[in-house]
Amino acid sequence: QAGFMVYTDRAQFLSDAADAGLTTTNEDLDSPGPGDPFTIDDLNGNSVEFDVLDGGFGGNGIAGGIGDVKLASNSVTGSVVGIGFDSIYIFGGGFSSLQRLALNGGDAVLNTFGNSGNNVSFLGLLSTDGTLITSVDDITLEYEPTNHFSRLDNLVIVTGSVEEVPEPSSLALLGMGGIGMVGYRWRRKRKAKLSA
């Protein structure tokens, strides 16, 4: 995903965001739920408003019951640079599940598949080059057979400013410049000693 790092580990996602000085804001989606539509916003005026297109609030998270869970948002305000969520699949094994996350008009699309029951998995995207999230086009949990149960929980947004990571060639030039400066200073000191 150009401009985004893919995460399947929530702890690593949150740790990398914290290390970059970014703000994470979590909505646990517990019953009765924040309503539909609902907004996740941080203290700095950054926010994402979500519409629940399929599924409903029940227990912990947005439940699909016999059906899929689907969210979307075209209302993103401020510097939103990451998004992630937990998906929970309950009942039996031997079924296939799809998690889909599409951002910025389809510029970043991520599909992951799993085929085991009773598990919690995380899916997230975090900007690596300062690319802002301008729309959350699709968050979907879909599964077969359709008599299984899925739930979306712990939806998190990441906000702030991401510094672009220099490409390796830029780092090499910077390193060579530093070595050159050290050599220049050493020669200058040596020349001063010999002159004295």
Order of helices and strands: EHEEEEEEEEEEEEH
Approximate helicity band? 10-25%
Counting H and I runs of at least 4 residues, what is the number of helices? 2
Q: In whole angstroms, how far apart are the ends? A: 61 Å
**Backbone shape:** elongated
Rounded Rg: 23 Å
Please outline the major beta sheet.
7 strands, antiparallel
| Structure class | alpha+beta
Number of beta strands = 13
Strand content: over 45%
User: Unreliable segments (pLDDT under 50, ≥5 consecutive)?
Assistant: 165-171
**What average pLDDT do the residues reach?**
78
List keywords for this structure.
single chain; 196 residues; alpha+beta; 7-stranded antiparallel β-sheet; 6-stranded antiparallel β-sheet; 2 helices; 19% helix; elongated
Summarize this, please?
The chain has helices at residues 10-19, 168-195; strands spanning 4-7, 23-27, 38-41, 47-54, 56-57, 62-63, 69-77, 80-90, 96-103, 108-114, 119-127, 136-144, 149-159.
Walk me through the structure.
The protein is an alpha+beta fold. Helix content is 19%, strand content 45%. It has 2 helices and 13 strands; from the N terminus they run βαββββββββββββα. The protein has helices at 10-19, 168-195, and strands spanning 4-7, 23-27, 38-41, 47-54, 56-57, 62-63, 69-77, 80-90, 96-103, 108-114, 119-127, 136-144, 149-159. Strands 1, 2, 5, 6, 8, 11 and 13 form a 7-stranded antiparallel β-sheet that branches. A 6-stranded antiparallel β-sheet has the order 3-4-7-12-9-10, with no helix packed on it. Strand 3 and strand 4 form a beta hairpin. The longest helix is centred in the C-terminal third of the chain and has 28 residues, at 168-195. The relative contact order is 0.22. The model is unreliable at 165-171 (pLDDT under 50).
